[in-house]
Design brief:
heterodimer; A: 373 residues; OB fold (Dihydrolipoamide Acetyltransferase, E2P); 2 domains; five-stranded antiparallel beta sheet; 23% helix; B: 296 residues; mainly alpha; MetI-like fold; 14 helices; 1% strand; globular; cell membrane (chain B); MetI-like (chain B); MetI-like_sf (chain B); transport (chain B)
Chain lengths: 373, 296
């Protein structure tokens, strides 16, 4: 039986909700967005991920209507929205600072957008009550924003931006001001609400974990360009560049010269060391510079020399104890420092390795990703 | 101890420079006018001991306050002062708000300069600035000459020695007191609130009325009181620009003291003026306190 997976981006008949067509945005001499093309589909939870200054916020503000593209087109449901001012767009935004109106109560904040539409009183009341229930703010409806905690304010901001039932909801670093635990809870709440309302969400974040958790697809950005747009697992498991591999999660990058035979590549990475083996579908030239990206959790660490495709000996330099897992920094004779992770299935007193131990690192021939740039 | 000493300084200041003089004024207002020096009676004679103090207190009465109610000059002057102060406050707000708004939306590097321009007039004597308005507003003054030259009018306008001149004078003098608190408020305004309002369907204009104005309310109130309170007791502006027709309590007070030499009645006028002012001053204090609480 075939499972129906939500993947409209693979369906050629599906019309995207938002289309960026060759969009460029310049601020004076500075190019914030450079010739960008992007499709976002209805009901997607789309994450724009990148370091600060990569243009992700500019991209979002163009969707909201606060910035105009210098050139190119942005289509919403097939129509160019360049001429539509922010107050006429079926798009709402949740601001990073939440931007709650301090002089209005929670209820009035949520009702603000609906009142501007001039809907009748009863309708507004039902809608606001629905939103307040959805975000579990019933107890706080009469309070002013300064009487709320950070998490409650965040929920008010969400309720307010959802109240008008926008076609598209933009979230600008929505969880940045929350502490870690609350942030993790809220991520799941957000996903839940997104599913319930069926609204298309576009979230801007610099937190890769957050993007991976909530999003159906992630766009990794760098200096005004999209580096990779894909599902979270693809971004993690099959990054297309060193930049993406390095940006998402921890990774070991080993530079070397390729020597391909079929789908197997031998990578000569250090003098006097046997080459590392990886598989790839790409065709590399002989002695082409390439990079091996290996996630720390895919590297096994053992005291005895194991049987594996890639085996290197090293010495433990540092141990990062994280409770459930430990990260070992292992120094190789070549000077490379490799991070390897292993789960702490035993109590710490019985840990097998300690500082300056000689250990063997090993991984299979499919564990590493071979990257050309 | 240190905290007590710190609190003591403002209290000593208030007692020495406000409370004691005010008690003296009350005392004079309860006395009778006399052709003597000082021009009122009774004088407190402590050499006669307790009988002297008793005799002194038995001579005090509220005669002057009842006198204020018998002559309609006084209550008309009070009402006229309230009216002039009220209208000038509204005019100052209407002119000051856009200026403050413009300053707050100017580029940050310009703001200090604009602020300087608002404060600059204070560097010249207040009296000289009011005098210079005589030169501008008089029949042969700058304004009339200019308007005649433009051909807008055929005959010079009579502005000086009317209430209009008083309004111009008060608005001109007190404008910075309106601009500064409103500017302080608008400058703090988070720009993302206006974006949020627009995002939720407001036009620029409605965002202004629904977000900017309510959020600058405390600045507006502070500015209004800072103009209204001193404008009620204003004396220099009405006497220099308002001529003989303009009735304001500050002018009446001056005339009672210096032309009439009736210190007791003048003191009574001053006491009533203070009582009238206490209400807006308390309201002003409330507003300030509310702001302090809200900003915490």
């Amino acid at each position: 039986m075939q499972q129906t997976v939500f993947a409209p981006w693979q369906d050629p008949d599906e019309k995207p909700l938002i289309q960026f067509r060759n969009v460029t945005k310049k601020f004076g001499d500075f190019t914030a967005i450079a010739n960008l093309d992007l499709d976002i589909y209805a009901r997607e939870f789309f994450a724009l991920l990148g370091p600060s200054g990569c243009g992700k916020t500019t991209l979002m503000r163009m969707l909201a209507g606060f910035e105009m593209p210098t050139s190119g087109k942005i289509l919403l449901g097939g129509e160019d929205i360049a001429a539509v001012p922010p107050n006429k767009r079926p798009v709402n935004m949740m601001f990073q600072s939440y931007a709650l109106f301090p002089h209005l109560s929670v209820w009035e904040n949520v009702a603000f957008g609906l009142r501007r539409e001039g809907r009748d009183k009863g309708e507004i009341e039902t809608r606001v009550a629905d939103m307040i229930r959805l975000t579990r703010l019933e107890k706080f409806a009469r309070r002013k924003p300064h009487q709320l905690s950070g998490g409650q304010r965040q929920r008010v901001a969400l309720a307010r931006s959802l109240a008008k039932a926008p076609k598209l909801l933009l979230l600008d670093e929505p969880l940045g001001a929350l502490d870690r635990k609350l942030r993790e809870e809220t991520q799941f709440e957000l996903m839940d609400i997104q599913e319930k309302t069926g609204t298309t969400f576009v979230i801007v974040t610099h937190d890769q974990e957050e993007a991976m958790t909530v999003a159906s697809r992630v766009a990794v950005m760098d200096e005004g360009k999209l580096v990779q747009v894909s599902t979270p697992d693809q971004i993690y498991e099959a990054p297309t560049s060193v930049y993406v591999a390095d940006f998402i999660g921890a990774v070991n990058i080993i530079e070397g010269k390729a020597n391909q035979t079929g789908d197997k590549v031998l990578v000569n990475w250090a003098e006097g060391q046997s080459p590392l083996i990886a598989t790839t579908t790409a065709m590399l030239q002989k002695d082409q510079t390439c990079y091996l990206a290996i996630r720390p959790e895919k590297i096994a660490i053992s005291a005895e020399r194991p049987e594996a495709a890639n085996v290197i000996e090293g010495e433990i330099l540092d141990i990062g104890y994280l409770g459930n897992i430990s990260t070992y920094h292992v120094k190789l004779p070549s000077g490379h420092i490799i991070k390897a992770q292993s789960a702490n299935t035993r109590r710490i007193a019985r840990r097998s390795f300690t500082w300056e131990d000689k250990v063997w690192l090993s991984w299979s021939d499919t564990a590493a990703i071979l990257l050309e740039r | 101890m240190r905290r007590l000493a710190l609190i003591l300084i403002p209290y000593l200041w208030l007692i020495a420079l406000f409370l004691i003089p005010f008690v003296i004024v009350i005392k004079i207002s309860l006395s009778d006018v006399a052709l003597a020096r000082p021009p009122y009676f009774p004088q407190l004679d402590l050499t006669e001991g307790f009988t002297g103090i008793k005799a002194f207190f038995s001579e005090l009465d509220f005669e002057n306050f009842t006198f204020l109610t018998t002559d309609d000059l006084y209550w008309k002057a009070y009402l006229s002062s309230l009216k002039i102060a009220g209208i000038s406050t509204i005019l100052t707000l209407l002119i000051g708000y856009p200026i403050a708004y413009g300053m707050a939306s100017a580029r940050p590097e310009w703001r200090a300069t604009l602020m300087m321009l608002v404060i600059l007039p204070f560097w010249t004597s207040f009296l000289i600035r009011v005098y210079s308005w005589i030169g501008i507003l008089s029949q042969g003054g700058l304004l009339n000459t200019f308007l005649l030259w433009l051909g807008v009018i055929n005959e010079p306008l009579t502005i000086l020695n009317t209430e209009i001149a008083v309004y111009i004078g008060i608005v001109y003098t007190y404008l910075p007191f309106m601009i500064l608190p409103i500017y302080a408020n608008l400058e703090k305004l988070d720009g993302s609130l206006l974006e949020a309002a627009e995002d939720l369907g407001c036009s620029r204009t409605s965002a202004f009325w629904l977000v900017t104005v309510p959020l600058s309310k405390s600045g507006i109130i502070a500015g209004c009181f800072l103009v209204f309170i001193p404008a009620i007791g204003e004396f220099v502006i009405p006497s220099l620009l308002g001529g003989s027709q303009t009735l304001m309590i500050g002018k009446v007070l001056y005339e009672e003291f210096f032309s009439n030499r009736d210190w007791p009645v003048a003191s009574a006028v001053a006491v009533v003026l203070l009582v009238i002012l206490i209400i807006p001053i308390i309201l002003f204090q409330r507003n300030e306190q509310k702001n302090r609480e809200a900003s915490q």
